[in-house]
């Protein structure tokens, strides 16, 4: 084991599909850090096997020991009813409560971690992020300037420490707790002075059609398929076809395109 690791989380077989492409993209980036997949009991052995075959270290983790009241408040129907997603559609396999298991990375035996959601692709080496402080994340930009007020927890830097995890758990599940965007809202409150990463380290797919002037293949390090996933059929597939095709190239075993040569959204 190295002292540094890229870490992702999979909680069902659908997200394991995403992780297959992510793990391959990390390997192709030339990193020498460990690639760790935390997985819960909701993932089958058949879905995990390809991740191990691509060099990932599999680490089983439990969902957090949260209270019944907390679990009910963050159940899919209850959370989406109280805080609906109005800009895009979350797939049926998205289970909000599972997101909090991401905090388990603070229990891992590493000095420095870069967390990546399973629906991301690493297009360029990101190892310099291991030298960034805790806690760094990119703003949740995909629509306009107001997006800069919120961070997106799909990519962030962390320094594992079991003592920090214990403090997190104590602050997370308190009477009346409701974290509107689950781990993302919690982490922004837990790290109120979070350091901002450039948006190119967490480029959200909606930028492709909503803010095309911001898109720059030569600068993008991490592409994040927020909302609809590239391995499912969805209503925005035609708009996002070049990005979906790119994801499929990484998910397969064949060659991947030269990123810098790809046409932009206005091509």
How would you characterize the overall build of this protein?
This protein has a single domain (4-261), classed as Spore Coat Polysaccharide Biosynthesis Protein SpsA, Chain A (Alpha-Beta Complex), CATH 3.90.550.10. The termini are far apart. The strands form two sheets. The chain has a seven-stranded mixed sheet, with helices on both faces. A three-stranded mixed sheet has the order 5-10-9. The protein has helices at 13-28, 45-53, 68-73, 76-82, 162-172, 183-190, 207-210, 241-251, and strands spanning 4-10, 34-39, 57-60, 112-116, 120-122, 136-139, 151-158, 195-196, 203-204, 222-224. The protein is built from eight helices and ten strands. Helix 1 packs parallel to helix 2 (45-53) and helix 1 (13-28) crosses helix 8 (241-251). The protein is of the alpha/beta class and 267 residues long.
SSE blueprint:
Layout: E1 4-10, H1 13-28, E2 34-39, H2 45-53, E3 57-60, H3 68-73, H4 76-82, E4 112-116, E5 120-122, E6 136-139, E7 151-158, H5 162-172, H6 183-190, E8 195-196, E9 203-204, H7 207-210, E10 222-224, H8 241-251
Parallel strand pairs: 1-2, 1-4, 2-3, 6-8, 9-10
Antiparallel strand pairs: 4-7, 5-10, 6-7
**The number of domains:** 1
Helix content: 25-40%
Compute the number of strand runs: 10
Q: Helix and strand succession? A: EHEHEHHEEEEHHEEHEH
- CATH arch. level architecture: Alpha-Beta Complex
Biggest β-sheet, characterized? Answer: 7 strands, mixed
Measured on Cα atoms, how large is the radius of gyration?
17 Å
Q: By helix and strand content, what is the structural category?
A: alpha/beta
């Amino acid at each position: 084991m190295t002292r540094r690791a890229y870490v992702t989380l999979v909680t069902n077989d659908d997200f394991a599909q995403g992780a297959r492409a992510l793990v391959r993209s990390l390997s192709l980036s030339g990193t020498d850090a460990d690639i760790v997949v935390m997985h819960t009991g909701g993932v089958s052995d058949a879905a995990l096997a390809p991740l191990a075959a691509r060099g990932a270290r599999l680490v089983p983790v439990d969902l957090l020991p949260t209270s019944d009241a907390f679990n009910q408040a963050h159940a899919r129907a209850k959370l989406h009813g109280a805080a609906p997603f109005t800009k895009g559609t979350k797939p049926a396999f998205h289970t909000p409560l599972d997101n909090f298991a991401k905090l388990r990375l603070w229990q891992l035996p590493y000095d420095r971690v870069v967390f990546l959601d399973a629906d991301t692709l690493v297009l360029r080496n990101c190892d310099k992020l291991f030298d960034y402080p805790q806690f760094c994340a990119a703003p949740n930009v995909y629509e306009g300037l107001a997006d800069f007020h919120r961070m997106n927890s799909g990519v962030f830097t962390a320094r594992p420490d079991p003592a920090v995890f214990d403090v997190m758990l104590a602050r997370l599940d308190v009477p009346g707790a409701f974290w509107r965007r689950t781990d993302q809202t919690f982490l922004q409150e837990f790290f109120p002075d979070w350091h901002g990463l450039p948006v190119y380290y967490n480029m959200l797919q909606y930028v492709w059609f909503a803010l095309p002037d911001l898109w720059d293949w030569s600068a993008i390090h991490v592409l994040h398929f927020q909302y609809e996933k590239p391995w499912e059929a969805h209503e925005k597939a035609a708009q996002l076809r070049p990005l979906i095709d790119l994801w499929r190239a990484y998910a397969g075993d064949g060659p991947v395109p030269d990123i810098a040569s790809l046409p932009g959204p206005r091509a």
